[in-house]
Amino acid sequence: MSIQFLARIVIVSIILHFSHFSTVSASKSNCRATLYVFSSEKKSDLIDIIDKQIKVKQYPHSEFISVLKTAIEGDGVLILSSEYPLKRVNMNEEMYELIKEKKLRVYVEYPSYVPGINLGETMMPSKQRAVISSDFFENKPTKLSILGINGLHYIRTNTKITSPSIVAAQVAGFDTAIFGLPEKIDPLLFEITESQILVSTTSFSNFVSGRYAPQQAWGAIWKMILEYVLPGKEIKNLTWNPKVTVTYKKNEKLPRNYQKNSIKKGIEWYANAKMLIADSFADSLQKRINLGKERIEWNENLPLGDGSKGSLECVFSEIDENGRQPLGIIVRGDCVSETAMAYATSGAVLKDKKSYKIAQNLLDFYLFNSIATKNEYGDPTHGAYGLIPWGISNYSWYKASYGDDNARFVLASIITSAILETDRWDEKLMRSLFALLRTTGKNGFRGDRIDLQNFTENGWEYYSDREIINLSPHFEGYLWACFLWAYNQTGDNLFLEKAENGIRILMKNYPEKLIWTNGLAQEKARMLLPLSWLVQVKDTPENRKMLLTVVNDILKLQDKSGAIREELGAVEMGKYPPPQSNEAYGTNEASLIAQNGDPVSDLLYTTNFTFLGLHEASYVLNDPEIKKSVDRLAEFLCRIQVKSQKHPEIHGGWMRAFDFEKFEHWGSNADNGWGAWVIESGWTQGWITSILSLRELNTSIWHLTGKSDINKYHEKLKKEMFEHAKM
């Protein structure tokens, strides 16, 4: 072996030794690196989460220069916004020069100044969402992933930014921007590479208080930001308790009285959210509506009524930067009736007579004291006589008569009547049933909506004589359920004939030719109730076959968690399909999903009415497997009920969208009316609370309401309503 060869071995060994020593030293240096956090707040969402694994030194913004003069290379810096969105973080040239001189790696958000970047106005978009736009996060989350930044405000950059990591853009999609990024985007996160600075034009550090979602994605984003400012330091996955979460985790063992507990929380939500209008507040709300405003901010000092002035519609879907959601202040008939039903049924379970009184007050208000049964609706000579207006807060709501909303008003009212053991509303309800019957065409279809001016022009006979076919269970199904119930109470074949005609025509076209609204699954869900009640009045093999067809189709959509998966039909049959382009996002009512397979349950249009329909079907079919499916759905609903100490206005509620794989409240917020995080007092809260209560009472709606005395008004009102009919 030559001396030269031995010398080479020695040299290589020395190099490897010092290389290893250098690596170890660097590693130790990074482990000892300090993270300087500048924030005006004593604590922030982020610091609370990371202080167990990172050495953090926190200072106010005013001490930036003096503190960082002692920093060393390898230290990291976070400059967080404490007054977002009202005030930008004050930054100047001297600060950036110090960062460059010290060779620090920095994250700065919502700054007043960035060298070389012309910062413009603060934007407050209504349709833009955050989207991952580069490979900066190494596919965690992946490029084109959609993020929820609630109450998004961002600073527009008038200087072109090359390859931003996150952008604000109007995009369609559930988890992913399925049509890619549009031409118009605004950077939310980008790197100034020559200075090793990450700049956010918004506030990412507000992710807990602002309820940013999905949670796992935001944990991954902050993990990468922290590893950027502390290179070489491995950051463990970030976890935290959200301000709004589920009542029970996905695989958590449920307590013995979980269903009763859920009912209690469900009815308490109405008081928490201030849904019952106080007499002292009614005029103030009406004045606001008269000015064209349909929402107010919730606060704990809002007065609470007893039902005698009605109830509000919802907690709207918008979430601001503080995680708050506004109240929808329109008074609409279906929600008032369904709220009354929730109070009545829960009152029976919880043995709360006060709830009975609230239920009575609500129906008395709408049927006796409000304008809902007056003017045209109370005029025997008018075609709208006996119908229930969509709402009473302004003329746009008052003029409209939706058959499905009328039907649910009746359904909720007969349930309330049965629980309270009263006939005080029977005459009004019988008149409403006849009003619906006489405005339904010969084939058993009524159509989506009829307005007052239509009745003024055409009279009611025009609608009775129509041969309209409307293959939409959303609008027709619950009318048929009401007609079948009315037939069972009165023996009047007019009700049975129109219900049977409509059901048979629709089922001959089921499911391919159904006109679906926000999804096909909800159309199937709406057929469960009328088909169940058709079997109740006519238990034939054909009727059972139709019911089982729909039941089995619904059960195919049930996840092992108990959730009901949303489903889309052919786009050309959809009235409100998912946005078919980025430009269409947020411009109309829409589905919570972008395509079949997205793991979302819709508690406004599908899951709530599936729960109702399967509950009734389980009684008429007496099938153990169907009963198990209803049990699983009930457990799922009790698990995902909102839990929040921070936001009492939504605690105990059920939001519209739920991702049953992530097991958090998440979905496409494309719907511009009732978005992903809305809590509807009637459609959602009313029916879920009530069906849970009926389960505790061990009864179905059919059996509960079977002893109604409504028939005593049948002959009198039939003569009144049809004396000029062309029968």
Task: Give an overview of the whole structure.
By secondary structure, the chain is α+β, with helices and mostly antiparallel strands. 41% of the residues lie in helices and 10% in strands. The longest helix has 29 residues, at 3-31. It starts with a helix and ends in a 5-residue tail after the last helix.
- Largest beta-sheet details: 9 strands, mixed
What distance lies between the first and last C-alpha atoms, to the nearest angstrom? 117 Å
Annotation field: number of helices: 23
Counting helices, strands and paired strands, the structural category is alpha+beta
Give the helix proportion (percent range). 40-55%
Low-confidence stretches: 5-29
Q: Give the number of DSSP strands.
A: 21
Query: What does the average pLDDT come to?
Result: 94
As a percent range, the share of strand residues is 5-15%
Strands of the widest sheet, in order across it, are: 2-1-3-4-11-10-9-6-7
Topology readout:
Blueprint: H1 3-31, E1 35-38, H2 45-50, E2 56-59, H3 64-68, E3 76-79, H4 93-102, E4 105-109, E5 119-123, E6 129-132, E7 146-147, E8 154-157, E9 166-169, E10 186-192, E11 197-200, H5 215-229, E12 245-246, H6 258-272, H7 279-290, E13 295-296, E14 314-315, E15 327-328, H8 333-350, H9 353-369, H10 395-398, E16 400-402, H11 403-420, H12 426-438, E17 449-451, H13 452-458, H14 461-465, H15 473-490, H16 493-508, H17 520-537, H18 541-555, E18 600-602, H19 607-621, H20 624-640, E19 642-643, E20 657-659, E21 679-680, H21 685-697, H22 701-704, H23 714-722
Parallel strand pairs: 1-2, 1-3, 3-4, 4-11
Antiparallel strand pairs: 5-8, 6-7, 6-9, 9-10, 10-11, 12-19, 13-15, 14-15, 14-21, 16-17, 18-20
Helix pairs in contact: 6-8, 6-21, 8-9, 8-11, 8-21, 11-12, 11-15, 12-15, 12-23, 15-16, 15-17, 17-18, 17-19, 18-19, 19-20, 19-21
